[in-house]
Amino acid sequence: MSETAAVEPIGKREKTKAANRQAILIAARRVFAQLGYDAATVRDIIRGTDLASGTFYNYFRSKEEVYEALADDSAARFRPILRHARAEATTFEDYLHGAFRAYFSFVVAEYPEEGRPIDERLPHVRLDTPETKAVYQEVRQSLEEAMAGGHAPAVDADYLACACIGIAQEVGSAMLRRAPPDVEAAAAFATGLVLKGLVGAPYTA
């Protein structure tokens, strides 16, 4: 048996596993948006796929684990978009506006057909998974660099990073309830809110 022939079945199994996991995540995103996180069940998620119930439990033990995976999956895909917005910015205001616009465009694209999530239907976005922690660090590092370069007020970087993420989540949720969602208006509002809010924020030593 050739080396290539021996490897092929393993490669096929890995592709099948990846496809099954992705099918579960797609179904879960749709179910959480339509029914709400609290009302949704594992059975609802399974019904949204072509998989057997036993197959689901090969990947996840609960809907909580699925939701955590969704948070990580979204954060992993958003990080390079956020990094690009940072690279394209020439001023602190450019960075804020570009980052907010990138996030709002991203969340609109997340729910093109299934219906959009509403505040009451989804729990707050988790910030304690590996990928969401990485997004937080990305935001904080960008803010710290802007402060160090004299482009942004020298305030508490941790508070500011958390404030920016919180504004993005809450304004994004409000934007998604509108038809059609206006990404540019939401980005302009969020950017202005942060910039004006910094005027009253105490500077660090």
What's the short version?
With 205 residues, the protein is mainly α.
Can you walk me through this structure?
- Helices cover 71% and strands 0% of the residues.
- It is built from 8 helices and no strands.
- The mean pLDDT is 86.
- The protein has one domain (3-200): Orthogonal Bundle (Tetracycline Repressor, domain 2).
- The protein is elongated.
- The protein has helices spanning 3-35, 42-47, 53-56, 63-88, 92-110, 130-148, 157-176, 183-200.
- It has 205 residues and is mainly alpha-helical.
Annotation keywords:
mainly alpha; Tetracycline Repressor, domain 2
What are the SSEs and their pairings?
Blueprint (H helix, E strand, L loop, with lengths): L2 H33 L6 H6 L5 H4 L6 H26 L3 H19 L19 H19 L8 H20 L6 H18 L5
Helix pairs in contact: 1-4, 4-5, 4-6, 5-7, 5-8, 6-7, 7-8
